[in-house]
Amino acid sequence: MDILRYVAFSSDPLGGNPAGVVLDATGIDEATMAATAAEVGYSETAFAVARPDGSLDIRYFSPQAEVPFCGHATIATAVAHASRHGVGRLLLHTKAGPVPVTTSTTPDGAVTATLVSVEPRTAELSGTDLAELLTALRWSAAGLDPALPPQVAYGGAWHPVIATADRARLADLDYDMPALNALMTRRGWTTIALVHRESDSVFHARNPFPPGGVVEDPATGAAAAALGGYLRGNGLVTPPAVLTIHQGVDMGRPSLLTVKIPADPSSGIEVTGTAVPISIS
After folding, report:
1. In sequence order, which residues have a C-beta less than 8 Å from that of residue 162 and are 6 or more positions away?
2. Which end of the chain is less enclosed by CB atoms within 10 A, N or C?
3. pTM
4. Is 156 helix (H, G, I), strand (E, B) or coil?
């Protein structure tokens, strides 16, 4: 098995979110995928199998569980695929649905990828779940941003969106991992999208990911897509709109995600980032 290692949403291997990528997972069974992802140890490893038409079937495994969709591993897979087959359009068949990805080369030679999520949607977050979630985060309801109401958002996977009015509160993340893990496992949430809105188009984010066996994701493309759908669905942006999301800064792995929100309410959300290989000594 040829396991590639890439960092997504950063041009610096010391930033971004690391992902394992297996471009040819033909004949590899689920148990082996799960064991490989656990051994690699990144928040996700992607396993791709080519179809006759050139599209890819793809599955994503964290060290502890399979997830239906992963944004940063999608970006990493697309860039790795482009390094072997050239840039262009690639269709990925995920468990969440079809996800087209387009890669291109920038003037400085970097390769970027833009994914288009499945149709986003939102759901209410019950008062009971919110209270349990805030307790696990050790956050207070008084510190939330009243302009961004707590909801659960979907862009291929489900993520509660919890906004703080204070950037410093976002930086001071210290949560109860077992309690949050138990709640997220019961509800089927992939990560928690903790956000602070700096301006109309700039956000800061952190994403706890205990169900995957990971304390925190340095860059979460699926949550970025879900956030874009949440903002559009609640009338909190005027589409078409482009957002910049800074993530990973507070954990020493700065990441940059660009989110484009089309006006069509049924359209997917575009998430763009670069990816670079990680050298393994």
Report:
1. 133, 134, 137, 139, 144, 150, 192, 193, 194, 195
2. C
3. 0.97
4. coil
